[in-house]
Design goal:
heterodimer; A: alpha+beta; 5-stranded mixed sheet; B: alpha+beta; Aldehyde Oxidoreductase, domain 4; 20 helices; globular
Chain lengths: 163, 719
């Protein structure tokens, strides 16, 4: 057991756990941040995706000891108060979900993609998002949503991308 | 769980469970009802006798208590807030939204003022389950009736208050308005202080689909914001104070029995260990400790030899259980004389088709949180049959059903794969021993291995045909995969169609579209084989043998959108498949591209034309059709469970390929809106045309006829 310092969604946390514990387990079990989901436990489905220093990372295969001191963003930290992040808004606008269990991970991956590449074409979106599974099959809507988000400019987008 | 006792899940549960439905018990009297709901107006929908027998198992009304044959009820509180209670559940098909639309339409209340309480066995009326595409044809209608009756009750109250004829009053925007008197009153003002119950009039006039204002529109997911913010709590996200995390020890192979067990170390680690018959599980304050405690158990298992993938199709043919009718509604259909017609046919075409076992892979695995208060058990779990799971729990713990409450938070998908309550029972057993709430979430590997599969099957088709393309004989035998969609909608005078049930080597059960996918794959592939035999165009051949106007209409609509008849380039292939299932009509056209050198098959474009009566929510309908095609792509092209001697060989997401972004074809959807026909479900039917459309397109591109699903798990050359 160790005391691990974590910076999540702009807040500091101190967690008593084994450094080998997965970040996903710490988020869900210790901190009750349940927006990040378990889907496969081997980094294959993307439902657990969070941002670590602005880059997408699969929290189920990330040992919590390796992200101490880094800036972690989860789905819970994306909106500003009641103001949704533009990527959250376009997912709503496009109806880009069914059961929505994959949605947190999809949104976090999309935010990371747009930070890296503010105007991706369709094949760049497919390449980047291919590690995220939507078993309900809403892929075409998610692509449309990401394209729409890319077209949106403004302070909210820049703010989200800078995290 | 030996190969002989695998029939705990009926193949066609929508039929099986209709007969097995347990009776609804609602023992509140009217006064208790308002104590429970608060004052206001309650309208209950009472099922008609014929429906009652099916949906609630029957029962008689008595005295002052409310009728037992309730399908749904609606409450309008003193604040004007509308709460609707239904036993249906939300697993991504978006019925929370479509049912809200139905209530909004008839009650004239904005969507935002309506809340649906779903799938809670304490609060909602009995419901046999959410499957078989039944919510839209049944519950949508029930809720529209309830809402319409509530509206009329409110009009009656306003008419009495103003002492005017109810006929001159109208409902709009949550108010009753008197256009002549130029006055209006909010629903809340009418419900204040009331304790009024109303049962549905026998026949209530509903707003015709042509006049819908809210229904028929693309209303966004009502609680969509909770999902994009991560706020919604799925079953696996539930939490209670002092909760423990549970894990269950799995046998080394299916049907294995425990020879010896040593859990001393696990107990020393501080875990609660339960060993009860075949059940061995642990509970601990953290999931990590629970995992370690499970790993510390030493267990020896004894397993019997079992069939494997390589002999599967032989096994299915040889292990039929003739006379044991799992569906209960007759497995054989005969008309005319098939033998005579076959012997006099100009062409005879005989083929065998196979389908593999596949897994549902709902992204949220099975999960449950169980809590005991004395002899009362409450379980939060993701299931399509909360009342069925309540029954399973009552049975497992030898207790009356009314001591068990099952609550189903909106769940991370099911696709027919969550009819059963394994995690509910496991969590409850551990919680009972630990005397604390226990949450248990299956790992992906557990979900792959210990849930159930879509049945594998072998299908033989023999057909006779005249030179002019008239089908004269049709014989079809399905071994194990199920009888849904087994009958042909083509007009054939001589038919023999038989479903042969089999002792399945793997645990099998429902799956989105059930056996209709397998039966349509065989039938629609064979239709192309026949068309090829008489050198007729596939579409022309189908239409020549098809009278059903609704099915003809979707074939025409899809063909037009697809551009059927256009010329193709090298490697390109076009194909179609279609049919009728769960009261809906689908035609699917596919374009594939085959790289002859590498053998790679890419589905480039899919056009679907679908008709399900009057459309309730066009955007959600498109979403369901697109989703059916994407999910269907997996079973059509590459999904297959591999197993050997009681073990699953590819039970991980890194080993079992599901469709991803890079598999996505261009999807085009044509909606055929029939406002003159009652609305039916759309979650399943759109899937059934895809696999044969792709197989037929591959044949069109290459001349190679593939008769096994999945079609190209390893590319075209290797398959």
């Amino acid at each position: 057991m160790a005391t691990i310092q974590l910076a999540i969604n702009g807040k500091s946390y101190s967690v008593e756990t084994d450094a080998q514990t997965s970040l996903l387990t710490v988020l869900r079990e210790h901190l009750d941040l349940t927006g990040s989901k378990y889907g496969c436990g081997e980094g294959q489905c993307g439902a657990c995706t969070v941002l670590v220093d602005g880059k997408s990372q699969r929290s189920c295969i990330t040992r919590v000891g390796t992200v101490s001191g880094k800036q972690i963003t989860t789905i819970e930290g994306l909106a500003t108060g009641e103001q949704l992040h533009p990527v959250q808004q376009v997912f709503l606008d496009e109806g880009a979900m069914q059961c929505a269990y994959c949605t947190s991970g999809m949104i976090m991956s999309a935010v990371a993609l747009l930070k890296k590449n503010p105007s991706p074409n369709e094949s760049e979106i497919v390449d980047f998002m291919d590690g995220n599974v939507c078993r309900c099959g809403t892929y075409s809507r998610i692509i449309t949503a990401i394209q729409k988000a890319a077209k949106m400019q403004g302070p909210a987008m820049a703010k989200g991308a800078s995290r | 769980m030996s190969a002989k006792t695998n029939f705990e899940i009926p193949l066609e549960p929508e039929r099986y469970e209709l007969r097995a439905g347990s009776p609804y018990r609602f023992d509140l009297d009217r006064r208790d009802f308002f104590k429970f709901l608060g004052a206001g107006i309650v309208v209950v929908s009472v099922l008609k006798p014929a429906v009652v027998a099916q949906e609630s198992g029957g029962g008689r009304r008595r005295g002052e208590s409310l009728p037992k044959e309730i399908a749904a009820w609606l409450h309008i509180g003193e604040d004007g807030k509308v709460t609707v209670y239904t036993g249906k559940v939300e697993v991504g098909q978006n019925i929370r939204t479509s049912l809200t639309q139905a209530v909004s339409e008839e009650l004239h209340v904005p969507i935002s003022k309506i809340e649906l309480v779903m799938g809670d066995t304490k609060l909602t009326p009995f419901d046999m389950g959410t499957f078989g595409s039944r919510t839209t044809p049944t519950m949508n209608l029930q809720l529209r009736r309830v809402a319409a009756a509530a509206r009329d009750t409110l009009i009656g109250l306003a008419a009495a208050q103003w002492k005017v004829d109810a006929q001159r009053l109208v409902a709009a925007d949550g108010k009753i308005k008197d256009p002549q008197g130029n006055r209006s009153v909010e629903y809340a003002a009418l419900t204040k202080g009331q304790q009024l119950t109303q049962e549905l009039p026998a026949e209530d006039p509903l707003i015709p689909a042509a006049d819908w204002r809210v229904a028929g529109q693309s209303t966004p997911k009502v609680d969509g914001r909770d999902f994009v913010t991560g706020r919604h709590r799925y079953p696996s996200d539930q939490k209670l104070p002092d909760m423990l995390y549970g894990k269950v020890l799995r046998p080394a192979a299916f049907g294995a029995t425990l020879v010896s067990l040593d859990a001393t170390k696990s107990e020393q680690m501080g875990a609660t260990v339960v060993h009860d018959g075949d059940f061995v599980g642990v509970a601990a304050p953290t999931s990590r400790l629970a995992e370690s405690a499970l790993e510390a158990i030493r267990a020896d298992w004894k397993a019997e030899p079992q069939p494997s993938t390589k002999e599967l199709f032989d096994y299915l043919r040889k292990n039929t259980t003739e006379g044991h009718d799992v569906t209960g509604d007759g497995d054989s259909y005969n008309v005319g004389s098939v033998d005579q017609a076959l012997s006099s046919a100009d062409h005879k075409v005989t083929s065998t088709y196979t389908v593999a076992y596949i897994a549902h892979v709902p992204l949220e695995p099975r999960a449950a949180l169980a809590k005991w208060d004395g002899d009362q058990l409450t379980v939060w779990t993701g299931t399509q049959r909360p009342f069925g799971v309540r029954g399973q729990l009552a049975e497992a713990f030898h207790m009356p059903e009314d001591h068990v409450r099952v609550f189903m938070p909106d769940t991370g998908a099911a696709y027919g794969g969550k009819h059963t309550g394994e995690t509910a029972i496991e969590a409850a057993r551990l919680a009972k021993a630990a005397k604390r709430p226990v949450k248990l979430v299956w790992t992906r590997e557990e979900e792959f291995t210990w849930a159930y599969f879509r049945p594998a099957g072998v299908i033989d088709v023999m057909a006779g045909i005249r030179k002019d393309g008239t089908i004269t004989a049709w014989e079809m035998h399905n071994y194990n995969s199920g009888s849904a969609g087994i009958r042909t909608y083509y007009d054939v005078p001589n038919q023999r169609i038989v479903f042969h049930s089999v002792n399945s080597p793997l645990r099998q059960g429902s799956y989105r579209a059930l056996a209709a996918t397998a039966n349509h794959f065989a039938r629609e592939s064979h239709m192309d084989e026949l068309a090829h035999a008489v050198k007729m165009d596939s579409l022309e051949f189908r239409l020549k043998n098809l009278k059903d106007e609704r099915l003809r209409a979707v074939f025409h609509a899809a063909a037009k959108q697809f551009g059927w008849g256009k010329t193709k380039t090298a490697g390109q292939g076009f194909g179609m498949g279609g049919g009728y299932e769960k009261l809906g009509n689908i035609a699917t056209f596919a374009e594939v591209n085959v790289d002859v050198k590498s053998g790679e098959v890419k589905v480039v474009r899919v056009v679907s034309a679908f008709e399900c009566g009057a459309i309730v929510n066009p955007d959600n309908l498109r979403n369901q059709i697109e989703g059916s095609n994407v999910q269907g792509l997996g079973g059509a092209l590459f999904e297959a469970i591999e197993f050997e001697n009681g073990k699953i060989l590819n039970g991980r997401l890194s080993q079992y390929r599901v469709p991803r972004f890079s598999d996505l074809p261009k999807l085009e959807t044509v909606l055929v809106d029939r406002k003159d026909i009652p609305s039916v479900g759309a979650g399943e039917c759109p899937m059934i045309g895809l696999a044969p459309a792709i197989a037929n397109a591959i044949f069109d591109a290459t001349g190679t006829r593939l008769r096994s699903l999945p079609l190209v798990p390893n590319g075209l050359k290797a398959s």
